[in-house]
Fold this protein.
Amino acid sequence: MKKEILTIPCLADNYAYIIHDESSNKTTLIDAPESGPILTALKGKNWKLDFILITHHHSDHIDAVDELKQIYDPVLLGPQKDVHRLPKLHIELSDKEKFSVGGLIFKCLEVPGHTSGHLAYFCQSERIAFTGDSLMTLGCGRLFEGSPAEMFKSLKNLMLLPDDTMIYSGHEYSAMNAKFALEVEPSNAQLVDRAKTIFENSQKKIPNVPVSMGLEKSTNPFLRTNSREIQEKLKMLGHTEIEVFSKLREMKDYF
């Protein structure tokens, strides 16, 4: 299918994404942090908004939903587990459920940790995944509602996606995440190269999304808990991967 994906910077460091399917002429928004930039993008393309897909309940992902609904009356889809703290959904989604928006078929992936009801959305045919604040560029979301074990399991499940899957995450935290990654795995040559690109992009206000799952697996410390260098840096050789992950997440919170 022919599609176009727009990356929309919102607020201080959020991203929303717009997918337009040319064959069906349907347009889908993933998360709605701020109406202004989203409306500008839609009007610039002369697209109507047909669907809004929500990853989780935090205000910086849903604040623009009501205004967009008043203008376009889109179908609203989101996690069933968060229904009590989301705008009223037309379609409630659960783990492993498949659904269609426009000409795209997505599969829901339950990824608790950042929030208890967080969903990611994977389209196999297009090799794209929208991970919100679960897996992020060179990082992962803070554990506001879940345990380290829950987030670790969520990330392990996302790592099962094909390496050529392009990951679209919810924030531009790449530069800070790169600095942290270099602290714990400085000898990772691929990470060093990637960090250089990220720092250059950040200076030029170029988004560091999307990124392939394969590149995340080779450079993101939260996906590399079996790395000997990381374990040595943390003085945790012989510890379980969950223990290493928990220490990394604690360190990152205060980085």
Q: What stands out?
A: DSSP finds nine helices and 14 strands in the chain. The chain has a mean pLDDT of 97. Residues 189-203 form the longest helix (15 residues). Residues 164 and 205 are 25 Å apart (CA to CA).
